[in-house]
Design goal:
globular, 10 helices, alpha/beta, UDP-galactose 4-epimerase, domain 1, 7-stranded parallel sheet, 3-stranded mixed sheet, Rossmann fold, single chain
């Protein structure tokens, strides 16, 4: 039986990953830097002794690394922390795996922000596309991915890396557009906010996928991906941010005005990111099961009930 260790289990994607694995035939080791219940093992990837202790004691056969700083916006404010968590953490993990459990399979989760500035003609973006990250977050994930490839080629570690495009769902932190829009609409409906939604750049085009489809792709890659390879995880379809906002507004009876706010604009913003998922599909036979419209409605209803 596979023994799967999940890092960052208390995070947005981590919590969905844990729930997903509970419905599969694996022995699950749930870890997090902050322990909230007796079923979670404390693991801080920036503390190498912690990594040694947990991996030597549990000896997982597979690892899904979801620990990290996941916000592009916050990476501009906390550059050093973003690099420490996203790059040095995976280095500690790889070093300990190499020394104690070299046959372990490792899924390193990266980001479409590694591609950075691309042209419309480059889309859908293949894994071989030129990399030109425009944010500290994108650069930190690019560095982590290169590190994984170096360990795979130099030491033969069975590690593979994703470039995961935008994913959404109930439970994601505020600061991500779908959450910010949905919360503002719910607050307007309750009378807790004036009927004005403050927004940043609405013309950016992104490739959105429901988080439940994302974690299913991760499980399939964990057992089918080839070491030293990089895989896009995405729907292959693009939506402008304004389209996301319009879908959410269409599900409300409130009369809502849209106001662009300078404090929601980033120092640099990638105009378009649409991924090519053909390598993922050919490797795993993965497919999208949840529509964006249904995902957005679930998010909006969450804030209405909250």
């Amino acid at each position: 039986m596979a023994k799967v260790l999940v890092t960052g289990s208390s995070g947005f994607v981590g919590s969905y990953m844990v729930e997903h694995f509970k419905n599969t035939d694996v022995e699950l080791i749930v870890t997090s830097r902050t322990v909230t219940n007796q079923n979670t093992v404390r693991l801080d990837l920036n503390d190498k002794e912690s990594v040694i202790e947990v991996l030597r004691e549990n000896k997982p056969t597979h690892i899904v690394n979801l620990a990290g700083q996941s916000s592009v916006g916050l990476s501009w404010k906390h550059k050093q922390t973003t690099f420490e968590v996203n790059m040095l953490g995976i280095m500690n993990l790889l070093d300990v795996v190499l020394e104690y459990i070299p046959d372990c399979r490792i899924l390193s989760v990266g980001s479409s922000e590694e591609y950075g500035l691309v042209n419309l003609g480059d889309c859908p973006i293949p894994e071989t596309n030129v990399l030109n990250p425009l944010s500290p977050y994108g650069l930190s994930k690019l560095s982590a991915g290169y590190l994984c490839m170096q360990y795979a080629r130099s030491y033969g570690i069975n590690v593979f890396h994703t470039r995961t495009f935008n994913h959404i769902g109930v439970g994601q932190n505020l600061g991500f557009v779908t959450q910010d829009f949905a919360k503002q609409i719910a607050d307007i409906e309750k009378g807790d906010q004036e009927p004005i939604i403050n927004v940043g750049n609405l013309e950016a085009i992104r490739d959105f996928t429901d988080v439940r489809d994302i974690v299913e792709a991760y499980e399939l890659l964990l057992f089918n991906a080839e070491g030293g390879e990089i895989y896009n995880v995405c729907s292959g379809k693009g939506l402008r941010i304004i389209e996301i906002l319009n879908i959410l507004i269409s599900k409300s009876k409130a009369d809502i005005n849209i106001v662009q706010s300078t404090d929601k604009m980033r120092p640099a913003d990638v105009p378009i990111l649409i991924g090519d998922n053909s390598k993922l599909i050919s490797t795993t036979n993965w497919n999208v099961k949840h529509t964006i419209e249904n995902s957005l409605e679930e998010i909006l209803n969450y804030y209405r009930e909250k």
